[in-house]
Each structure stands twice: as C-alpha cells, then as structure tokens.
Amino acid sequence: MSKPRTRTSKTLRWIEICLLLAGLAGVGIWGWSRVHLAVSEMWANHELNRQIARRPAIAPGPAVPHWVPLPDGALIGRLEIPALNMQLPVREGAGRKTLDVGLGHIRGTAMPGQPGNVGIAGHRDTVFRGLRNIKKDDVIQLQTTLGTYDYQVESTRIVKPTDVAVLRPDGKPEITLVTCYPFYYVGSAPDRFIVKARQINAQTVAQADPPPTAQLPAVAPKSAPAKTAPPKPKTLVAKASHPKPSNTPKNTAIRKVAFWVPAGDSREVVPGIRLGVSRTDFPARRASLWIHVSPEQYAISLREQPAHHAVYFHGHDDGKQRELMITQVNPHSVSGYLAQYPSRRPRVRYASTRY
C-alpha cells in the first residue's frame, strides 16, 4: 500500500514544480515587458524633447504642418492628459510591435495638425489603462516636432471592432483615442472604448494636405534630460511690469529667437540671457519663470506669468529692449520667443521684489 502513495506523492510534487516554474516564467515575462515599456518611453521622451528644442518658433495660426511618409515605429510626438497624469510617446502605425512600446497613430487617419480625425490607439492593459477615468471637458495635448495641439474631450462610447465610423472626419479637427474594452477583460476583448475630443487651439510651423480616412484597428491586449540648477542672481531680483511702452516705433528688423524650456530646468536663449522655468500651471496656461541677464548680473522673477502676455526688459550695457513672450504652457515645459529690438528703447520700470 505504501508504493502507490509514494508514486502519487512524486506525481503531485512534479505538478507543483511545473506550476511554480510556469508562474515564475509568467512573472518574468510580465516584468520584462514593463521594463521594456518604461525604457522605450524614457528614450522617446528624451528624443522628442531634443527635437522640439531644435524646431523653429511656433505661433498661433491656421498653418497646416507638412508630414513626410513615416515608417512603422517612427516617433511622431507625445500625448499628454494632465487630468490622468498621462504622458505617452506616439509612434507611426498601430501594429503589435508599435503598441507594445507606447501609442500608435492609426494609418490613414489625419496626421497631427492636419484637417480631419487623428486616430491614436493603445493597449488597455498598459499605457491606456487610465483612460477609463477620462471625463468630458478633460484636455488632451498632442506635442510634435511640427507643432502642439490641444483637444477637449466631448464624449466617450463603446463600439464594436467593425464600427469604423468613429474614425471618419466630420469637417472639424479632432482626435479619437481607441483601446480595447472591457478594461479588465481576460483574453481578447470584444469591444472598443472610444474617446472623441475636439481641437481647441493649434500652434504649427509648416504646411501640408489633408489625409484619407482609415479603418479601425484591433487593439488587442498583448499575450528626462539632465536638469541643471538655476544660477543665483548676484544683485537685485525684479518683477517685470507688462505694459508696452507707448512710444515704441514700428520696426520690421526685430530679431526673434524661439525657446523651449522643461519645467525645473533652464536654457540660455541667447548669449547673456538665461531663462529658467520653476513650475507650470497647464490648465491656467501660466508659468513661474526667472530671467538671468549678464554681464549686468541681475534677474527678473515672473510668478504665474500667463501665455500671450509680453514682458519687456532691457540690458543696462547696451540699452536695447527685449520682449519675452510665452506662446505655449505645457504640463512639463514652456515655449515661446525672445525678441530684441535693434535700436535703443525707453527703459521700463520694474517693481523691486525678492525670490
């Protein structure tokens, strides 16, 4: 009677070992996919920041960006949803390899900034897991090397995978986010969760033609630059006043230099003028900045500076007046331009303050 029991015990032990190994293998695969996704997102954000920093000045207007044909997996931009604390890279194509490392632009839909419907797909069990909490009027921002575009959520819906009508353009610039549904479904999900958002602003730098329509993909579940400390001002720190001098003559030779500065970082916009970003308030389109001017060695503190409100300051040595304009406040960065007038301007008075 003891031999059958011994055989049964050995069989059960082997079954336990096999199940343990299978569990460890599953955990290992899951862990590797998470690490791979995190590394891919980190690299994509670093590369996109580098490309945006090198793009020309952006300004509001109806200009349509010109996109050249891109291969699958090519980096397009970054999608941010501040209400969900979501910041994800977007690549071309909605194939499995692309969606395993982020979001994918659905081929055949409009490219960012072009007339029509921009389709973006992502996995429900990784990058788009938080999409289930999105609400009406939430802001979606799409940053690309050719411009930055804001959208406001209008509706969410659940459709079948064959319902391609959600990707058709309706004459107005919009974005459609697509993922599988239900979010916690085990296996291949039967439905698609759709978020529709309308464009509310556009800042671009180039021109192009509208694209054709596309088909709804099957989004099935899968089986930051180094920061430098801002320089400390040696003398008076001032808060700039904003009214433009009334006796400033018109001049077509004004020099403008575009800038892009991440939050918590600083950049030398032009020789002798360094701009730093302390914090950003994306919903209010405001940012707290500081400007360090050398060789005069003084600084200007700008707290809660709104976008599209010019700040004027001057250099004591050359007497030339400068204009700082924020054109875009993003959740993690600020962009705009610095203009310098070629001739001497009346000085603008500042109200003395301290950091």
Structural topology:
Layout lengths: L1 H52 L5 E2 L14 E7 L4 E7 L3 H4 L3 E3 L11 E5 L17 E6 L2 E13 L14 E8 L9 E14 L32 E4 L14 E8 L3 E5 L2 E9 L4 E8 L4 E9 L4 E4 L5 E11 L2 E12 L5 E3 L3
Can you tag this structure with a few keywords?
single chain, 355 residues, alpha+beta, Sortase, Chain: A, Tick-borne Encephalitis virus Glycoprotein, domain 1, eight-stranded mixed β-barrel, 2 helices, 39% strand, disordered C terminus
Q: What report would you give on this structure?
A:
With about 350 residues, the protein is of the alpha+beta class. It has two domains: about 180 residues, Sortase, Chain: A, CATH 2.40.260; about 120 residues, Tick-borne Encephalitis virus Glycoprotein, domain 1, CATH 2.60.98. The protein contains two helices and 19 strands. The protein has an eight-stranded mixed beta barrel. Strand 17 and strand 18 form a beta hairpin. The N and C termini lie far apart (about 85 Å). The C terminus is likely disordered.
End-to-end CA span: 86 Å
H/E series, N to C? HEEEHEEEEEEEEEEEEEEEE
Number of helical elements: 2
Write out the strand line-up for the largest beta sheet, numbering strands in chain order: 2-3-4-5-8-9-7-6
What's a concise summary of this model?
A hairpin with a 2-residue loop joins strand 12 and strand 13. The chain is α+β, with helices and mostly antiparallel strands.
